[in-house]
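Running this now, will post back.
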Amino acid sequence: MLRKISAVALFIATIATISVMWLPAFWATAIAELSAFCLAAAWLIGFLMGKQRLQIRTVLISLVAAAGWAAFQWVSGATIYRWATGQTMLYWAAGASIVFVGLAVFDDRQVRIAYLRALVVAGFIIAIVAPLQLFTAESKIYWLFDSPDGWRAMGPFPYANQYAAFIELLFPIALTGVFVEKSGWKTFYGLAAAVMYASVFASTSRSGLIFTTIEVFVVPMLAARRSGISFRQVAVPGLIFLGMLITMGLAVGPERMIEKFHQKNPYYGRLKFSEASLRMIADHPWIGIGAGNWARAYPAYATFDNGSYANQAHNDWAEWTVEGGIPFLLIMVSAAAWSVRRAFKTGWGLGVAVVFCQCLMDFPIQRIGVAMVFFTVIAAIGYDDDSPRQRRQPVPE
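Update: finished.
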């Protein structure tokens, strides 16, 4: 009973957090964190009472270590601004809690399948609403609320690359269903995948288009290998589906995307941010400047000014190292190594590996709405259903 209640509660909290993720208010973030902490506490109490069994994976240990390192900086004063470090500590603690709860909930395969399917349904709805809002709402979120700084918001996502990361996480699940599903959900998965891919076109996220296109080619091969289907069996329907994806993408209008690809030196600013980050790392290699403090330290290392506030390094790997030093980098390498291996093994979890790669050029998971989906999928790929009986199940495991 606790497993199903937790799954429903986690899903509701995820959707609620995504729905308000453009808001800078503390309560918009607190929805996710408070929900994660309460669910984790419930499972810990159940374990102490002898009624629940806990599931531990390497990635969970890494995320607990990430929260612990930020806590060490906060307690010891090894940070240039304790408030920001405390906030980031809560972020990583919430991420660890989501993975902890997810591992407990997804121990039941049917619950795991239902949860992933529900995420795809939610992603499908958002992928329909987001382009419609983009083309008709004049930079207003839900046609009502002003987008931060006038950004071209995709649904509740004010930043196109974070919307793309959200789709990158769900797209492989839908795409796997196209080739593995045997029930009536197969048609839905195909429609959902096509709409999601087209919405990335509309978002004009260059990295999003590149990474989802990679998923288009890699996921069918992984699904075929995992399901025991010959490559020839997936080649023809795969090419037909690819044509449908391209057609849907062109239908939403590729002009702005083409313009962005023709921009000169589009990543010049990010290169300068990375150069500044390397100098920060050289000055604070072992302890870092304190979690959540890159933007506060950056002005002292800046070599150019584009007239905008530099809120992130646009390279999470560099930012993590700046803020937490080499120890924190090693923690994140450990989490990524486990996740990438599991992502390729499942196939449908490839989005986790893709988002870790996107972290090299952006900050896709720094908004808690995307992070909740990211950590949930990480928990889901912690399970491996390899028996012949389980492989005959019609839904991607």
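Residues 316-346 form the longest helix (31 residues). More later if anyone needs it.
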